[in-house]
Amino acid sequence: MTSNLPDSSRDIPVGARNSFRAPAAWIRLGLVIRTSIALCLLTAVTGSAATGIPFAGTNITPGSLFRFHAPLSTHSKMVVTRGGNPSADEAIGAIVLPPGFNPTNRYPVLIISTTSDGDASSIGAMKRYSKAAASSGWVLFAADGPSGKPTRDDLTWRWSMLSTALARVHEEWPASRKWPVACAGFSGGAKWSAYIGSSAMRQGYSLIGVFMGGCNEDAASIAFSYYRPGDRFKQVRFFLSSGTGDTIATPWHHVGVRQSMEKYGFKSVRLETYVGGHQLNEPHVERALQWFGEPATAVPVARTPPKKEPALQKPTDREPVTEEPQDKKPE
Predict the structure, then answer these.
(1) Which terminus of the chain, N or C, has fewer Cβ atoms within 10 Å?
(2) What is the spatial distance between Cα 146 and Cα 143, in angstroms, rounded to a whole number?
């Protein structure tokens, strides 16, 4: 029985079958569809990274300031109440991650300290350092107490809050335990940065630099003398930033600070000036971070050291040195 239905392979001429091509519009449509599917798959794969870096059950977006809570240890709860400070159960930490951050990689950390004037919020001072940190690939970090400025703003309070917040980061990102750190501050915050840096070094952190802007006192030598971070503290790079029109921490103050530090045995002290008054110079911050991150060179041959280190004025309200030393309140 013969079918009346046409046979496609028989009824179409051979030449016509071999020369058949899909219309150009169909080809373009196919390319668009395949490209769209590929983009969707790429978005599905990288979507989690685009939403942020996992931390404590949430995500941190690089470039934005992220605050978190960290519980104080029993010991820290006890020592922070010295000097009439209120009891505290937690520290408030804040972090800003650089672009392309990966917690398994190695990053330098810039720890910010602010003056004791005003609200004494180191977290509040982070914004002024964020551009320099981001452009240099640094993690920006600070910590405060849970209830604002304490009654007695001393090193025990500040280091308890800061070390607790850092420990919380180490729990989330174990690789961060080996990240190098630097400290930075302006005016009274510059002095605090020397004290915080010495405490960090005492606790085993790799301190690679201290930025001290608008600083009219040699806090580094005081920190070395009273908080005993070890001789390696004198090998750390210190960047002094001075405004030509600063009447609070004058250029002559900064020259005196540098001379005092060098006389006391500090090997790498850099003093630079900018046109301006008593205000943070952001280009100097970026320059300091670049310097801190450079490979260390051979330490120059030191001048003949004095037989006895220069005498320093003892902080007036300092308590005896304990496991967590006290200090005076920078002005």
Answers:
(1) N
(2) 9
Rounded (5°) CA angle 57-62-68: 40
Rounded to whole angstroms, the Cα distance separating 70 from 143 reads 10
**Position 295 confidence tier, pLDDT thresholds 50, 70, 90:** confident
**pLDDT of 2 higher than 90:** no
Neighbours of 73 (CB within 10 A): 12
Half-sphere exposure of 299 (CA within 13 A, CB side): 12
**Structural domain spans, the chain:** 21-51, 52-293
Are the C-beta atoms of residues 194 and 210 closer than 8 Å to each other?
A: yes
pLDDT band at 12 (very low <50, low <70, confident <90, very high): very low
How remote is the C-alpha of 146 from its chain's centroid?
A: 20
pLDDT given at position 329 = 47
**Residue 223's Cα: distance from chain center in Å?**
21
Per CATH, the number for 52-293 is 3.40.50.1820
